[in-house]
Amino acid sequence: EMGANWLLQFSSEIEQRYLRRLSIITELKEVLQSEQDELSLVYQPKISLETRQVNGLEALIRWNSQRLGFIPPDEFIEIAEQAGFIEQVTDWVLNRVVADILILREHQIHIKPAVNLSTQDIQNRPLLERLIALLDANELSADNITLEITESDLVADAKIAIANLQFLQDKGFSIAIDDFGTGYSSLAYLKNLPVSAIKIDKAFVLNLSTDTEDQQIVHTVLSLSNIFDLEVVAEGVEDANAMEILAEWGCDTAQGYYISRPLPLGGLIDWLASSDY
Ligand code: C2E
Ligand code: CA
Ligand code: CA
Ligand code: CA
C-alpha cells in the first residue's frame, strides 16, 4: 500500500538523520580530544567603508572530517549545542585564535579577529574566565578580540547573559550583535546593552543592489544606528553595487565575498600583503 510505503520511507529518513547526528557527535568529540588537524579556522577580512582598509577579521571554524567529509559549521555547531559540548568547541576556537594572533604579530599584523560565541557560551562564566586567563597567559589584552553573539543569545536567560556581557565589556572586549534583523530585538533595546556593534545579517545584504525591501530595511537600520552610536557591519557583500550603496548610507564596515572569502591563516597573510585594502 502507498501509505505504508510512505511511512517506511519517512521513518528511514528520520533514522538516517538520527544516525548522522550520532556520528557527528561521536566524531567531533573524538576530534576535539585528539591532536588530529581535522578542525581549522579560516579568517574573513572586514574593511572600513571610510578608509577602505582592513579593520577586522572574523574567525570561522571548518571541519574536514576524515570519516564524514566536510561538515558545514551551521550543522555541527547546532548539534554540539544540543548535545551539550559546545564549550569544548569554543575552547578549541579560542585557543587557536590566540595562537594565530601571536603568529600575525610576528608578521607585524595587528588586526583584531572576531570570534563567534554560542548561546550557551554567553551563559558560561567559567568559559569566559578561561578566555581571560588564556589572554593573560599570552600577555594579550581583551581589546585584541571581538566577540560576536546573536540576539537570541540574550533571550534564553537575559539576566545572566546581560550581566556576562557587562563583565566582558568591563574587561575590554568589543561585543557585536550578529545576524541582526533575523530576531526580535530592536536598536532601541540594544542601546541599553553593553554592545558596540551590530552585524546586519547577509540575508538583507546579498540582494541589496536589486531588492527594494532589503534596501528599506538596511537604510532604516543605518539611520537608527547613527542615533544610537553603534558601529554597523554588513556581512554578505558580494558585489561592488552593494558596497557602494552601503558606503553612501553610512555603513561603517563591510564583509563579504566581494572583498574576500574566508582564508586560512597563511592565505590571509598573503592576501593582506597583496591586496589594496
Ligand atoms: P555567521 O556568524 O553569520 O557567519 C557568516 C557566514 O557567512 C559564514 O558562513 C561566511 O563564510 C558566510 N559569508 C561571508 N561572506 C559571504 C558572502 O559574501 N556571501 C555568502 N553567501 N556568504 C558569506 P560559515 O563560515 O559557513 O558559517 C556559518 C555559521 O556557522 C556562522 O554564521 C556562525 O553562526 C557559525 N559559525 C562558524 N564558525 C563558528 C565558530 O567558530 N563558533 C560558533 N559558535 N559558530 C560558528
Ligand atoms: Ca558571525
Ligand atoms: Ca552567528
Ligand atoms: Ca549571519
UniProtKB/TrEMBL annotation:
Species assigned in the record: Alteromonas alba
Entire-sequence positions represented here: 494 to 770 of 773
Domain of life: Bacteria
Name of the featured protein: GGDEF domain-containing protein
Domain EAL per the UniProt entry, residue ranges: 21-276
